[in-house]
Structure formats: C-alpha cells, structure tokens
Design brief:
The structure holds two protein chains of two kinds. By secondary structure, chain A is an alpha/beta fold. Helices cover 36% and strands 19% of the residues of chain A. Chain A folds into four domains: 217 residues, 3-Layer(aba) Sandwich (Pyruvate-ferredoxin Oxidoreductase, domain 3); 187 residues, 3-Layer(aba) Sandwich (Rossmann fold), CATH 3.40.50; 79 residues, no CATH class; 108 residues, 3-Layer(aba) Sandwich (Rossmann fold). Chain B is of the alpha/beta class. Chain B contains twelve helices and twelve strands. The chains are: A alpha/beta, B alpha/beta. Chain B: Keywords: Oxidoreductase.
C-alpha cells in the first residue's frame, strides 16, 4: 500500500513529530500506539513513548476517567523524551478530546472520530455543545472523520457483525496515521495475522479497517499532504524498541547468565511491575524459576530462601509491595545474602495512582527498614537503561553479598525507546565463587566454617550453600557474633556489626564509576542533578538551552546508595544546583544533608513525567536569578 | 556409590548451647528429630531447617544442618523458596501456634495448598511463650492470660482442621510425651512427597503448664488418645472399649463399642483422596480435654510443586534447545543502523 499518487501529494519532511492517540480504555489506543511505535522504530526513527491509562480495567465508557492514551515522539534526530506537547491528537470520543486538548501544541492537528460526538458522549464528557461544530477548536487544524461508520462500511463482507466490526475502528485510525506519516503497513498486517490469525472474521475486519484508513487518507483530499520523518542517525548497530519492564526482565536473564547462576523470581502481581513476572515466566528455557507467591511478604521470603540455596534471587514489586517486604529486606541485610528487589515506583501513598509514575520511594529504599539497615540502591534512567541498572545491581549484590534495591518507575516501565543491542559476549562477568572449604578453626582446633569471616576488601561474607559438606551453618535475624555468626547479644559486638554492615555498603563507592558530568562548555554555573526517569526531560531541557547559547551542566545519578565518590567534588564546582524530582525533594534532602550544599528542588507529583519545558524554565530562572 | 555413612545424633547436633527453659517440651522434640535423622540417612549438608519467630523457632540453631531463623510467621515462604530452588534438599519448617497459625497463617495454608516438599513441625503449646504469656490462636475461650485478664473471647483454630481445609496431603498429630510416637510420625512426614503438616502438642511448663495433661498424661492416654492406624478400626481404651462411628451427617462421634457393635466402628483410611473423613476425625475433640485423635489423619499422593516446576523447566528446555542470550535480546523487530 505504498502511495502510488505520490506525484500529486508531495510529502513534507518533518524533523520530529509527537502524536497522541486517545480514546476510551476499550478503544485499543495502547495497541495502536504500540503498533505505530513498532513501525516507526523499524523505519529507523529515534523515538520515545508515554502510555497513560486508567487504573480501572473498564472505567465507565465515554467518561473522562476512562480515557486511555499513548503518546509517541518520533524523530530524525536523537531524542530523549516522549515530547512535551503533541503536534497531533487522535481523539476517538469527546472525553478523549476534553482530557487531552489542553496539552496539544497551539496550531496542532486534531483527528476526531465524529461518529462518537453524539449527545450522550458529549454529555458524559461535560460538553454543552459539539466542539467539532461550534468553532471552539478554531485554534487547531481539525479533521472530523466518521471513523466508526467508515469502519463498518469497510468491514462489510468480512462477516463481522456491526457490533464487532465497530471495534476495528482503532485500526482505521492507525491506517490513517500510517498514511499521514508515510509508514509502511506491511508489518502491521503481519502483526494482525499473527495476533488474530485464528479468528478469520476479526482478522479480516481489522485488515479492512486498516486499509480503509490508509486509503481514506490518500483519497479523501482533506489532508494537504502526507509527512515523513526521516530515519535518525543513531550510532551504528542493531536496534530494537524496548520498554523498561522488558529491559528489566532481559537484564535479569542476562544477570543470571553472566553470574552463571540459575535465576529465581518470586513475585506477587502488582501494577506496574507484573509484566516482569509475565516475561520471565516465558523463559524457562534459561532455567528460570518463577513463583507467583501468595503475597508480597512471601515473595520476598521465597526469594531470600532461594538466595540462601544458591540462586540469583529476585523479587519485583511496586509501591505498597515494598512496604510489605520491608521486614524481609531487613533480614536480608542482616543475614547478608545477595538479593534484588525491583521497585517499579508508582504514585503513592497507599494505593495512590497505580498506573501513574512517581519517584517517591527513594527515602523508603534508603531508610524503610527498622534499625540501621543500609543497602545499595541503583536507579535506571531510561527504558533501555533498566537492562544496565539490573545488571549493575546484580553485580553489586553478588560481589558484596547484600540485598540491592533497583528503582525504576511506571514511566520507564511502560515507556519505550530504541535500544542498541549489546552483544552477550561484551557483558561483564559477574560470577562469584561459593565457599566450599572451611575458612577458620573451631575451638577444638578443627577446621570450621566461619560464615561471618569477611573478605578484607569488600567486607562481603562468604556464600556457602546447602549441599556443601562440612559447611553447615545457620543464619538468622538475631544479631550475630562477628566471624562465627553465632547468636550474640554483647553490646560491643552489636556496635561492631552495625558499623561493619554500614562500612560494607559505603565501601561500594570505591567500586562504582565516578559521576560523569555533561557540561560541554565547561563554563556552566548551574548543575542540574537528577536520578531516575527525569533524565530525558533534563537532557532535553539542557539541550534546548545550549542550542540558545546558555550553558548548563547535567549529572545523573545511577547509584543512590552509596553515592559516587566524586559527587561532593562535582557539587562543589557549581555555584548553583538544581534537583528536579517526581517527589517532594527526596534526593535534594539527601544531598543537602550529606554535602551541605544549597541545592534547589524542583518537584512534580502529577503522576506524569516532567516536560522538558518545565525543567528548562526552572533552569533559566536559576541561571538568571 | 560411596560407602554408606553411619551417622549418629552427634552429627546432627550443633555446638550451640540449647537455651529453652528447663523442662520445656521442645527438648523432647529436638531429641526425637536428632535421633531420627541418622536413621533416615540423609546427610546433614542436605538438610535445611527453617523457622520463624518464637521459642520453637530457635530449633535450627541446635541442628548441625543448614538453617534459616527467618522472620515471624514466614518460615513456610522461606522454605518454599529453598525447596523450589533446590528439590535435592530435605527441607523442614519448625513453627509454633502463634508463628504458624496467627501471624503466618497465610503462608502456612498456601504452602500446604501448593504441596511443596517441606515437612512442617508445628509446636502447639496454646500460648505465646517468647513474649511471655499472651493467649494464642489455639488457646481455649476463657483463657486468662496477661492480654486477657478477663478471659479470652477469641474462638481458637483447630490446627488439624485448618490443614485439612487447605487440602494438605499429609496431616498428623503427635505429642511431646511419647518419643516413639513422635519419631514414627516424623519419619512418615519426612518421607512424604509434598507438604507435610504435623501438629505437636507441646507443653510450655512456664506459661501454660499441663495444657495437654488431660489427654497426654500416662494414666490418661488409654482413654483420651485415639491412636489412628491406617486400615484399622478406630478403637481406644484399655480394652478397646471405645470406638469412633459416623452418624447420618458424616460427623464422627465417640461411642461404646459394646453399645453399637464392632461392625459399626469406622475403619481409618488415611489415603482417601477426599478430605471429609479426615476432617470429621479432626472435629472429634474441640480441645485437649476430650478424647483426641493422634497419628496420621491423611496421607495422600498429589503432585508436589517443586517437581512440577522442574518438570516444566525440563520440558521447555528439551523443546527449546540451548538458551541463546543474543537471540533473546534480539528477538522481535530488529533493525540495523549502518
């Protein structure tokens, strides 16, 4: 279906475009967004995506609460965010229009399914009149298209009943947008065949709707012309598009592979972390054991049990699940076993915003256990970076025999970007040796295993697993005697063990790379320090300022506990420091307390990522202030 | 094959001083286990004892095996992780009535439902000992304790009924006054493939002394303990004068054998797939003051979790061939930038 009338309709080349598909949660907007992303990725665009959907499985149809959207930013240049404001809004009903219109760029385009703009839906969305007809959208380029009736017409002959055929209207929209942005549709029809091949009628109706949408764009002459976004000049190599949760799952598989250990995941379903459980459950070929536990606590307990038994053990969760695992994490700190806890952060407190993003669990990760219970924290900063963060977390957990918390968030989990595929052969070897021989001498002069005799450099204790003759030992949450691991309540021993546990984690600072600073001019006065998923928005904001000749430095923390050894030095170099966070200033408090710098905080807690413009504005204010 | 190793109690005893109160029932359970293990013949390095929190949960420290003294109520979860990861290990859970049935009730029933291959020894002393004497979920109504000075108004659990309700594949009861009985029950429980649940009536001589005397004292046993034997009529009493009979509702009652005739007396069948009969037996006594069944209520075969998990892995690995990390990472739509 390549445009054969290209002579009549010249295409306009765009450097970038941001499209938001919005509709009812039953309208299949996430699917359409995914497919459009997929073809754009294969086309060679750089891209970033932002899905946004309600927590309810089926919120009342036609209401604002039920609106689901998917934003994709495609570009011919290197981009780092899903875009601040869409250039094009696809609105499948009045509620979708109402919920999203304020985000649309001035002069941007709206493609609306006019069939859905009838009285009942207008009422549900709170419109007094029909915005498609009353001139209220005059500031935008409005294309009213009766997508439902055109889809029904196209599906005639497929055997689909009208009620079923109507569901294919998302493919009509996809076909139309594919034409608008000159995307090839073969990959989409291939995907439809794979997904719906078993149900001929649904398959045919979807293909018919897709083609009808494409052909409508080509023939209806309501669009001036189609657009194209050229492929981006990304570094050479093989790419795929990847979401944060998928990258996390792959990171875990790779970590097991690179550690030469079987991977064990125990998890309890929770949004938005469940996809990691789903993904790992598929890959039994890699010897991965996944257990869906009866609750969050059990999942943590099972993982610690598996770690004691010698597996690379993981538990995945989000917000409330982390609270529930806290006691088990304290035990893991105390018995010093390698364990990964992946927290896909979401809006809190309590149930909060299950499907929305936030990064407000940093203090929880740092301090959310009773007693002095430090553990390393690693945070991913982009969807594909989840892979690296997991591998790094696993390296630390194994080398230092400690639980590690890995922080991602809802935005990273469901957002996607192209990923330059690493070669397995280039991944680090993170394997460690099990203890197989006694490492000490008992009171009787016989060789004896000392479970708390530490490595003098890393302070890690040895890892002796059940099945090993002669190394039988007990671990538990009661304070242990240094070296022997026997129960011990002596005051001086507890103080010594508390300091040893702290020193072990603090010492990891010597084993992580110094914090790199992105300061091309070397003359910036303002340092923007970030962590986690704010990376893209901070980078984009900084690039915009630099393009206008304004200097700004950006440093982004992957290691939050311990901090990189040079962080104090980096902070001291800049007279002004800004820390943007999707919380009320958690990193900024840690940094101020640790380094006594007057770091300013920029906060946002709307369940949505920062826009580059928001950060850019704050940077300018501080630079000029 | 290596030479068979002769093991003794010493091989299973750690060098740690046992610190239960003098006279505690836990000692006799520890002895029974330490004497049994050499007979079972599984080497100490292949044994793992996992516990939660409470007096009985100190048990692993006294065993010269691998062990985890975990957190309150969660021992079945830790044990599940160990057993699921390593089906080659012999995994035990030591828990109490507070640990296993109160704070950890959820993990207990799910471990039983899942039928993971672990042996659960639930020390029931009907009191919180380590926290110095509050009522537990198995304490009788009216119990006066520090937290119930006017008597407990909480209805207690019947642990055997709970385990059967969770469809445990092995359910038994024994008591700390009869080492031989304990040993035989533990032996069967450990040999069972799947989750085994053993309730042990255990005397806390400090906070609930004599709680089980009415049924376990030597001179009471004949008339108060109903020892279950598979395939045999359920009779008890010095001369077998008492028996158990089902009524028209399937409820079990203690009857006089002379009154009803031996042919009406129930024959115990621990292997019935349907747990109703075992459940009826578990309801015979509402507490250790009436004739109480001990021994094995139920021992059936059903698939155990870790074996099914290993089987799925093996089946997929056989079909899928060697794992290929590069292949996995590069699955889906991949494009080349030159």
């Amino acid at each position: 279906m390549s445009p054969d009338n290209a002579e009549q309709q010249a295409t306009e080349v765009l450097e970038r475009v941001v499209i938001r598909f919005a509709g009812d949660s039953g309208d299949g907007m996430q699917l359409v967004g995914d497919r459009f992303t997929d073809v754009s990725a294969a086309f060679g665009n750089d891209l970033a995506t932002l899905p946004d959907y309600p927590a309810e499985i089926r919120a009342p149809a036609g209401t604002i609460a039920g609106v689901s959207s998917f934003q994709v930013h495609i570009a011919g240049t290197d981009i780092v965010t899903p875009g601040d404001a869409p250039n094009l809004l696809v609105a499948m009903n009045p509620a979708a229009l109402k919920a999203n219109i304020n985000d649309l760029m001035p002069g941007g385009a709206i493609i609306a399914n006019s069939d859905a703009f009838e009285t009942r839906n207008l009422d549900k969305a709170g419109y007094l009149g029909n915005p498609l007809e009353d001139g209220s959208l005059a500031a935008y380029r409005l294309y009213s298209i009766p997508m439902t009736s055109l889809t029904l017409e196209a599906a005639k002959g497929t055997g689909a009943k009208p009620r079923d055929a109507e569901r294919s209207k998302n493919f009509f929209a996809l076909g139309l947008i594919a034409w608008m942005y000159t995307r090839p549709t073969e990959a989409i029809t291939g995907w439809i065949a794979e997904k719906f091949g078993k149900n001929q009628i649904v398959h045919d109706a979807n293909v018919a709707a897709l083609k009808a949408g494409y052909n409508f764009g080509e023939t209806a002459e309501i669009f001036e012309h189609a657009y194209t976004v050229p492929s981006a000049h990304l570094p050479a190599g093989r790419y795929r598009n990847i979401t944060g949760n998928l990258a996390t799952a792959y990171g875990l598989i790779a970590a097991g592979h690179q550690a030469k250990l079987p991977l064990f995941l125990a998890s309890y379903p929770i949004t938005p972390a469940s996809d990691i459980l789903h993904e790992l459950s598929k890959h039994k070929r890699f010897g991965i054991r996944t257990v869906q536990a009866e609750d969050e606590i059990s999942a943590a307990g099972m993982a610690i049990g598996a770690a004691y038994a010698g597996h690379l053990a993981v538990t995945t969760t989000s917000g409330p699940g982390v609270d529930l695992k806290s006691e088990a994490m304290g035990l893991a700190v105390s018995i010093e076993l390698p364990l990964l806890l992946i927290d896909v952060q979401r809006g809190g407190p309590s149930t909060g915003l299950p499907t929305k993003t936030e990064q407000a669990d940093l203090m929880l990760a740092m301090y959310g256990r009773h007693g002095e219970a430090p553990l390393p924290i690693v945070a991913a900063y982009s969807p594909s970076h989840c892979f690296d963060a997991v591998l790094e977390g696993a390296r630390i957990a194994l080398k230092y025999q400690t639980p590690v918390m890995i922080l991602t968030d809802g935005y990273l989990a469901n957002g996607s970007e192209p990923w330059l595929l690493p070669a397995a052969a280039d991944l680090p070897d993170i394997s460690v040796k099990f203890q197989t021989e006694p490492n000490g001498t008992g009171p009787d002069g016989e060789p004896k295993y000392m479970p708390y005799l530490r490595d003098p450099i890393t302070l890690a204790r040895p890892w002796a697993i059940p099945g090993t003759p002669g190394l039988m030992h007990r671990v538990g949450g009661i304070e242990k005697q240094d070296v022997t691991g026997n129960i011990n309540y002596e005051p001086s021993n507890h103080e010594k063990m508390t300091h040893l546990r702290a020193a072990k984690i603090a010492g990891i600072a010597n084993d992580i790379p110094p914090l790199p600073v992105d300061d091309p001019s070397g003359e910036a006065e303002l340092l923007v320090l970030g962590w986690g998923s704010t990376w893209g928005a901070i980078q984009a904001g900084a690039r915009r300022l630099r393009a206008n000749g304004v200097n700004v430095a950006h440093a982004h923390l992957m290691h939050l506990n311990p901090f990189p050894a040079n962080l104090g030095e980096v902070l001291a170099k800049y007279p002004k420091v800004l820390i943007p966070e999707m919380n009320l200033g958690q990193l900024s408090r840690l940094v101020r307390a640790e380094y006594l710098v007057d770091a300013k905080s920029l906060t946002k807690v709307q369940g949505l990522p920062f826009r580059a413009a928001e950060i850019e504005a704050k940077m300018l204010e501080m630079i000029n202030g | 094959m290596a030479e068979p190793v002769t093991l003794s109690r010493k091989d299973f005893s750690s060098d740690q001083e046992v610190r239960w109160c003098p006279g505690c029932g836990d000692y006799s359970v520890l002895t029974a286990v330490q004497l049994l293990l050499p007979e079972i013949g599984i080497l100490p390095q292949n044994q793992v004892f996992v516990s939660g929190i409470g007096c009985s949960s100190r048990f692993p420290y006294y065993m010269n095996t691998y062990g985890v003294h975990s957190i309150h109520g969660r021992a079945p979860a830790f044990a599940t992780g160990i057993a699921a990861a390593r089906p080659d290990l012999d995994v035990w859970v030591v828990t109490g009535d507070g640990d296993g049935l109160s704070i950890g009730g959820n993990h207990l029933i799910h471990a039983l439902r899942r039928n993971i291959n672990i042996t659960i020894l639930m020390f029931n002393n009907q009191i919180y000992g380590l926290t110095k004497g509050q009522y537990s979920p198995t304490s009788e109504v009216g119990k006066v304790t520090k937290s119930t000075p006017f008597g407990s108004i909480d209805h207690p659990f019947n642990p055997i009924s709970v385990a059967l309700g969770a469809e445990a594949s092995f359910v038994a009861r024994t008591h700390d006054m009869d080492r031989k009985h304990m040993t035989e029950v533990f032996r069967r429980a450990n040999a069972h493939q799947g989750a085994s649940f053993v309730e042990i009536y255990q005397n806390c001589n400090v906070f609930n002394d004599g709680a089980f005397d009415a049924v376990v004292a030597k001179d009471s046993r004949a008339d108060m303990l109903i020892d279950l034997h598979h395939g045999e009529k359920i009779v008890f009493g010095a001369d077998g004068e008492h028996g158990v009979m089902l009524d028209e509702f399937g409820e079990a009652h203690v009857v006089s054998v002379a009154d009803v005739g031996l042919e009406k007396i129930l024959v115990h069948d621990e292997q019935r797939p349907e747990p109703s009969l075992a459940f009826a037996l578990s309801r015979l006594a509402s507490g250790p003051y009436e004739p109480t069944p001990v021994g094995i209520f139920r021992a059936i075969e059903r698939p155990s979790y870790e074996i099914e998990l290993s089987r799925q892995l093996a089946a997929v690995q056989e079909r899928g061939g060697a794992p290929d990390l590069d292949g996995l990472l590069g699955s889906g739509n991949v494009w080349e930038v030159v």
